[in-house]
Amino acid sequence: MEIAVYGAGGVGAYYGGRLAQQGHDVTFIARGEHLDALREDGLTVESVAGDFAVDCPATDDPAAVGEVDLVLFCVKSFDTADAAAALDAMLRPDSAVLSLQNGVDNEDVLADVVGTERVWGGVTYIFSTIKAPGVVEHTGGPARIIFGQYHDIADEAPARPALADDFRDACEDAAGMRADYTDSVHATLWDKFALICAQAGLTAATRQPFGVINDTEETWALYRRVMEEVVSVAHAEGVRFDWDPVTKWLDAMASMDNDENYSSLHYDLTHGKRMELDALHGSAVRRADEQGVDVPAVETINAILRPQADANEP
C-alpha cells in the first residue's frame, strides 16, 4: 500500500513505521526538529513490542507526497481544517482518509473537504509519544485501531470498501499492531470520546496520574460521572451502543496497569502547549447544549481547564 502519515507524531509515526517494516510505501508528513531528524536519521522506535528503525521519505509539504491509497490523519484536532485543505493532492477517487484523532468533530470537517465516501472514522488504543526528534517511545496499550466507513448518523452503515480489507490485512501482517473494521463507527467514536473526556479531564484538572484518581473515592465518582454525561449526549444525538461504554471502561481502566499514566491534555497543559480542550470538553458542552442535555460534571472540567487552555493558545 501507498500510505501517507499526516501528523507523524507518537501515534502516526509508530503505525507508519510498523507498516513500512512490512514493505509498504510510507511517507511521513511532519514539521520542525522532528522532521529534520526523520530526514537525516530516519525513524527510531523504542517499543515494548520490539525496537526498530526505518528510513522513510519525510516532508512538510503534502503536495510533494503524490497520490496514495490511504492517509493516516493524525494531526491535532485544532489543525484539522487547515490540514484537510491540503488533502486533495494526495487522493485518488478511491483513496481514503483515516482519522485517528481525539474527539468526534474531525470526521465531519474532513467529509466537508474530501467527501464523506473517502473518510474513515477511527480510534486507537496505544501509549506512544515523541521521546526526542526522530525517536518515538511506545510504552504500552494494545496498539489496536478500530475503524469504519464514515456516514451520516441517521443512515445505515455502507458496504465495507475493498481498501478497508487491504488496510486491515496490512496491519495484521505488521508486528506490534492490529486493526479491526466496524460497522458501528459512530458508537466506536463516542465510546472512546467518553473515555478521553474522563481520563484527560481528570488527569489535567487534578494534575494527578490515573492511579491517584482511581484510588480517590470522590474523584473516581467524578470520572464515572463525566463518562455517563458524555454517553447521554451521544444517546441524544442518535448514537446507539450494543454495549455499555461506562461499565466497559470502568472495569477495563480499574484493572489496567496504568497507574502512572496521565494524558496528552495533561502534558500539553503542563508544558505550555496548545490544548485540545475545545475538541474534548468544549465539544461535549456545545453538543449537550444543542440537545438540551445537562452535563454539569463536563461543564465543570471545561471551566477549570479553560483559563490555562486560553493561556496556552499561540
UniProtKB/TrEMBL annotation:
Q: What does this gene product do? A: Catalyzes the NAD(P)H-dependent reduction of ketopantoate into pantoic acid.
Q: What is its EC number?
A: 1.1.1.169
Protein's pathway = Cofactor biosynthesis; coenzyme A biosynthesis
Recorded GO MF terms: 2-dehydropantoate 2-reductase activity
UniProt similarity note: Belongs to the ketopantoate reductase family.
Source organism (scientific name): Halarchaeum rubridurum
List the keywords (alphabetical). Answer: Coenzyme A biosynthesis, NADP, Oxidoreductase
Q: This chain belongs to which protein, by name?
A: 2-dehydropantoate 2-reductase
Location of the Ketopantoate reductase C-terminal domain? 186-306
- Any one Gene Ontology BP term: coenzyme A biosynthetic process
What's any one GO cellular component for it?
Answer: cytoplasm
Recorded catalytic activity of this chain's protein? (R)-pantoate + NADP(+) = 2-dehydropantoate + NADPH + H(+); (R)-pantoate + NAD(+) = 2-dehydropantoate + NADH + H(+)
